[in-house]
Amino acid sequence: LPLSPKEEEVVSRFQEYLRIDTVHPSPNYYPVTEFLIIQGKQIGLDTKVVEYVQGKPVILFTWQGTDSSLPSVLLNSHTDVVPVELAHWKHPPFAAKMDEAGDIFARGSQDMKCVGMQYLEAIRNLMAAGFKPQRSIHVSFVPEEEVGGVDGAKKFYGSSDFKELNVGMVLDEGLASEDGNYRVFYAERTVWWFYITAQGHPGHGSRLFDGMALENLRISLDAIADFRKSEFDKVKSGEKAEGEVTSVNNVYLTAGRPTPTGFVMNVQPSQAEAGFDMRVSPLADLDALQKLLDEEWAPASRNLTYRFLQKGKVTDDFGNLAVTAVDDSNPWWVLFKRAVEKAGGTLAKPEIFMAATDGRYARNQGIPTLGFSPMTNTQVLLHDHNEFLNAKEYLKGIKVYEQILMSFTGTGDESGDPSNSKTGSGELSETIHTEL
Ligand SMILES: CSCC[C@H](NC=O)C(=O)O
Ligand SMILES: [Zn+2]
Ligand SMILES: [Zn+2]
Description:
Strand content: 15-25%
Low-confidence stretches: 415-428
Bound molecules: N-formylmethionine, zinc ion
CATH superfamily of the largest domain: Zn peptidases
């Protein structure tokens, strides 16, 4: 793959980040913190490291804007990555090997070390070009996203450090796009993790009777499977996007009594349990779902109980639906869209993220938040074997962030070229900025 010497340098910084192993279940966050501090220093950013929880540092960089009264922009990414199944990888997941085609293989190459480094590279370029942001730009690197962000983003967004930043707009992660349009996410499904416990008659395995625990549970599994199918069918037919339906998957089942060689076969167990990962769309009718659970999936009449391990809301802290407007009513959206287009990109129809990201902690505070990971023509490989990102696509994403940052924080006088940031005119962004 032909890369210029400058591009080589940029790509090798990405590879260096990817080579720092921050894999769950017990990531060591200190080496990556050290690496990031060095990056911030090189670029010339103010740096702050806060351990809201010991051993789980949040790294916060700031590029001070010229007008400190304006709400700032926060670019968030997480430093942790999910585990790998080593045997399935054709290149070691923490070697960040680039092949002939320029594909860089590493855990985190899509989710989401790419985005974190792209933020920094875009800032590096804008600084070098003499760009002066009006609003401050903050870049946060948080731990623990992959396990829910409780010791990471949740603490950070709940802190006085965060409040002091006066953040008006947040960017967090999205997903790769398999076609030429960038994907962008304006909301996400909320997590309902629950399990259903069934009680029932024990007895000899040869006997037929009503009300055995596993039979009580089986009726629920069938009902849940029917619901799952009806939601899935809407996706398959193209009527709805994945984030617009509610998903539910049975993720564990336990019953029976183990023996050294297997399970006891001739005793009907008196208890059984099933766990479910359900993702509720912000468009869903929550009362109807709750009713399903109470009356069909886990009715007491069938000797069933349920418990939530996690029951997320679809509303923000003010009781509004936790969605970011993606139309002309939201000036940030207008600026975002123009910037992507100015970078030569096109956007797909905005989507609801199917899983959970740290973006929800910002959206819950009513802060406009977009999920965006600039990767086009890239197979979605997050959490998968052989996760990779092409170097050219990575470099292209940096250009997109340059435009976004100019659009969000500029005075409206910037041209499309950061190296020529004092010319051109942008009346539209000027009017928009007075609204923000
Ligand atoms: C609710 S915490 C879990 C967060 C996790 N995020 C990424 O995969 C997810 O399962 O969506
Ligand atoms: Zn992620
Ligand atoms: Zn992830």
